[in-house]
């Protein structure tokens, strides 16, 4: 685990976007693992600019997103399908047939999760996984107590995560209770991982993940076992290290 402290969130996002662009030029058919939440938006903004300058070509790449809310249609403004369209996909040249997000509308959820895993395997795994972190140390929607070897599956959100994500919905009651998420085991198989976190509000989760024991109660702590995981944070998120 490598800790990279950048002076500002903007600098951190520029650094990670640069790493993604380098991967794409070395391996045009790279498989990216993408994340939602407010943290990676700056990375997507940088990638869009790199693309506009001809420095990032997504035409041969593939993308797998971490998670989606169960019950939300892709058009729902708070769905992660919608988020990805708005913040990245519609602005760059991904082949839409090569971008994947778990379906919030699957009638057979466990079959949909098994298919998602099979598709990641069919693409020969994820080259570079982007992650944010929840205030409780969750990654994707793997809430505390998630098995560290879990695969893509249905999860129930904790009251804290529902509250944290309520800002994306018109009312707190609207936040779904259930989600589909890649598992911790799925995430750990990515060949390279960049976890981003900014601000004081993430300082405790970062300290627990980086310096605490590896425990299912802080899912991001498992990244201590990942051979190339990089934790890219600003000064405020690093303040409890
Ligand atoms: C959600 C997402 C996570 C994300 C987290 C933190 O729970 N499923 O992938 O890391 O929110 O979001 P933010 O970056 O907005 O703090």
UniProtKB/TrEMBL annotation:
Annotated catalytic residues: 67 (proton acceptor), 136 (for ring-opening step), 138 (proton acceptor), 143 (for ring-opening step)
Reactions that this protein is recorded to catalyse: alpha-D-glucosamine 6-phosphate + H2O = beta-D-fructose 6-phosphate + NH4(+)
Keyword Ligase appears in the UniProt entry: no
GO-annotated molecular function: glucosamine-6-phosphate deaminase activity; identical protein binding
InterPro entries: Glc/Gal-6P_isomerase, Glucosamine6P_isomerase, Glucosamine6P_isomerase_CS, NagB/RpiA_transferase-like
Enzyme class: hydrolase
Residues spanning the membrane: none
Keywords of this entry: Allosteric enzyme, Carbohydrate metabolism, Hydrolase
GO annotation terms (biological process): carbohydrate metabolic process; glucosamine catabolic process; N-acetylglucosamine catabolic process; N-acetylneuraminate catabolic process
Pathway per the UniProt entry: Amino-sugar metabolism; N-acetylneuraminate degradation; D-fructose 6-phosphate from N-acetylneuraminate: step 5/5
Protein name: Glucosamine-6-phosphate deaminase
Lineage: Bacteria, Pseudomonadati, Verrucomicrobiota, Terrimicrobiia, Terrimicrobiales
